[in-house]
Amino acid sequence: MNKAPLVTLDSVSCRFFLKKGMFRRRSFIALRDISFTLHRGESLGLIGRNGAGKSTLLKIISRIYHPDKGTITFHGNVSVSLLSLHAGMDPELSGTMNALLSAMFLGFSKQQALDKLEKIIEFAELGDWIHEPIKTYSTGMLARLGFAVSLQLSPDILLIDEVLGVGDQQFRDKSMQAMKDKILSTDQTVVF
Question: Across the chain, what does the average pLDDT equal?
Answer without folding.
Answer: 85
